[in-house]
Amino acid sequence: MKPVTLKEIAEQLNISVTTVSKALKDYPDVSKKTKGLVKELAKTLNYKPNTFAVNLRTKESKTIGLVIPVIVHHFFSNVIKGIISQAEKKGYLVIILQSNESYELEKKHIGLLLSQRVDGIIISIANGTADFKHLNDVIVQEKPLVMFDKIAKLVKCSKIIIDDRKAAYTATQHLIDIGCKRIAHFRGGLLPQNSIDRFLGYKQALIDNGMAYDPTLVYICELGDKSFEEGKQNARQLLHDHDNVDGIFINTDLVAIGAMTEFKALGVKIPEDIKIVGFSNWFMSSVISPTLTTIDQPGYKMGKTAFKQLYKEMKAIKNKKPKKSTIITLETALVKRESTKS
């Protein structure tokens, strides 16, 4: 069955196509009676606007691109929900692409989104991303770009972040406050900015409390699909290397849960022998035994804020006004649970 057109509605009501179009858009110069007749017939005929034609006319695609490292992930799932909740309100479709922590795949996705003429792009960069030309290409093409969580400081665009350094400092300070004397850190990779900042927050907390920083207590987890296994592996390695560690600040909850699983299997009691603080506040953190003390990272709010900022910039471009980039920092909170119980 062919889709119904504005012309068919106009012919049945013996009015112009322009009047039908205005009536459907609630223009004030169309009478209430005419609007009612047009809308009733449009509903009866199951009329659907030709979005392709509308987009050609307005030079908007009404789509945005979202590039994230992983989709099946508690934090990123919440970010996606936040973005979609706001995008739907404004009539935008969200194209979601997964980089799988690969720079090459991320670069390919950005190229694809630009070729699809999306109106803007939201991204959390992959762990392997060290060259930012593909991101600067977005800006050169005058497309709004908003980064969140894992960002590139060298790319001049809006960013929605948390204060990772401050949050890590808070987590480490909590371990110090409850009596931990020898604190290890399972960090993320060497490239991601949030991993760097969390490491620096951990280190600064030690220094500020007169505790020596020992690089042999820092273990790298590249994260991604093997986070749980890396947590287990680093837990085993830590016990092999040191026998006096009584606290660990861990870069993500999934790594922390992997470490806790291995410690328990090896007879190490939590929190009696080792106290642990994670990061993100995954749902699993509140149901494992013992429950995991962690930093709450507001994923849903971050997603909402990212889209709102992107929309603001897309609107500015549409209205031919200056696009203002900004950095928005959201609050985190320490959630105390059983893994650090004194």
Verbal overview:
By secondary structure, this protein is of the alpha/beta class. The protein folds into 3 domains: 44 residues, lambda repressor-like DNA-binding domains (434 Repressor (Amino-terminal Domain)); 138 residues, 3-Layer(aba) Sandwich (Rossmann fold), CATH 3.40.50.2300; 140 residues, 3-Layer(aba) Sandwich (Rossmann fold), CATH 3.40.50. It has a 6-stranded parallel sheet with strand order 2-1-3-4-5-11, sandwiched between helices. The chain has 12 helices and 12 strands.
Question: Topology, please?
Answer:
Elements: H1 6-13, H2 17-24, H3 32-44, H4 51-58, E1 63-68, H5 74-89, E2 93-98, H6 103-115, E3 121-123, H7 133-140, E4 145-148, E5 158-162, H8 164-177, E6 183-187, H9 193-208, E7 218-220, H10 227-241, E8 247-250, H11 253-265, E9 275-280, E10 293-296, H12 299-318, E11 327-330, E12 333-335
Parallel strand pairs: 1-2, 1-3, 3-4, 4-5, 5-11, 6-7, 6-8, 8-9, 9-10
Antiparallel strand pairs: 10-12
Helix pairs in contact: 1-2, 2-3, 5-12, 8-9, 10-11
